[in-house]
Amino acid sequence: MILVLKTGFYSSIQDFGRLGFQEFGVPYSGVMDRKAVRLANALLGNSENEAVIEMTMIGGTFQFTKSTCIAISGADMTPKLNNNRIRNYDFIAIKPGDVLSFGKAQAGFRCYLAVLGGFNAEIVMQSKSMYQNITKAVTILKNDELTYDASESTGRGHAKIRVNAAYMESEILEVYSGPEFEYLSNHQQKLLLDGSFTVSKNNNRMAYQLEEVVSNTLNSIITSPVLPGTVQLTPSGKLIILMRDCQTTGGYPRVFQLKASAINTLSQKFTGQIIQFKLLD
Question: Which domain holds residue 138?
Answer without folding.
Answer: 2-166
